[in-house]
Amino acid sequence: MNELDNNMRLTNQRQVIIEELKKVTSHPTANEVFDMVRKRLPRIGLGTVYRNLDLLADKGIIKKLEVGGDQKRFDGDTSPHYHIRCINCNRVDDIFIERHKELENSAASCCNFKILDHHVQFSGICAKCLPEA
């Protein structure tokens, strides 16, 4: 069995979760990931998917997004990028624009912290919801 790091084995369940997340850009909820994974692993439990999503996010293998709405979403793309959320349907998309280091520098100058990273979320109305707005 492969290892992700010294403390975590790459089980078949974890491998499938990672593969399914990397296939999509829709930033699925845990329930949506469960539905995706269950097609390949019909006997997997919802609790197992939840636990593995949290563990994989804690290890930095996937991202857990808290972008509003009542459910966390997950992203298989761990590269630095921003997100935009539709305030109408809660759809979350990636935005690949230049990350602003000066934002971190500005934050560091205002507090006694060493800034390690930052997350920006934009809110708006997606093209699908715009006619309804």
Task: Note the main attributes of this structure.
single chain, 133 residues, alpha+beta, Arc Repressor Mutant, subunit A, three-stranded mixed beta sheet, two-stranded antiparallel sheet, 33% helix, 18% strand
The CATH architecture comes to: Orthogonal Bundle
Mean pLDDT: 90
Write the H/E string, N to C.
Answer: EEHHHEEEEHE
The radius of gyration computed from the alpha-carbon positions, rounded to a whole number of angstroms, is 17 Å
Percent helix range: 25-40%
Say what the CATH topology is.
Answer: Arc Repressor Mutant, subunit A
Shape: flat
Biggest sheet details: 3 strands, mixed
Report the count of strand segments: 7
**CATH homologous superfamily label:** Winged helix-like DNA-binding domain superfamily/Winged helix DNA-binding domain
* First-last Cα distance: 51 Å
The total count of helices amounts to: 4
